[in-house]
Design brief:
- By secondary structure, the chain is mainly α.
- It is about 45% helix and about 0% strand.
- It has one domain (about 10-85).
- The radius of gyration is 21 Å and the shape is extended.
Amino acid sequence: MKPPYDKPLSPEALAALKDDEIDFSDIPELDETFWKNAKLVEPDRTQLVTLRVKKSVLEAYKAQGRGYQTRMNAVLETYARSQLKRTS
């Protein structure tokens, strides 16, 4: 039985589904060709640093909840990549 999905499921609702209730029909099977052409991509490692930021900036990120350091890093990475594109 494949239930109709008229809107995205929440992570909790998705986790509650049994495997046979999930519609995988739009996902192609991974055959030998896929694995033959697959490339291993290592994750970008992080480095521990001491960084001084304004208290107001830190409080704003912390107010968004868990993962604030990851969000701060994502903003810095986006800025750094945009600067690299401008100079290339």
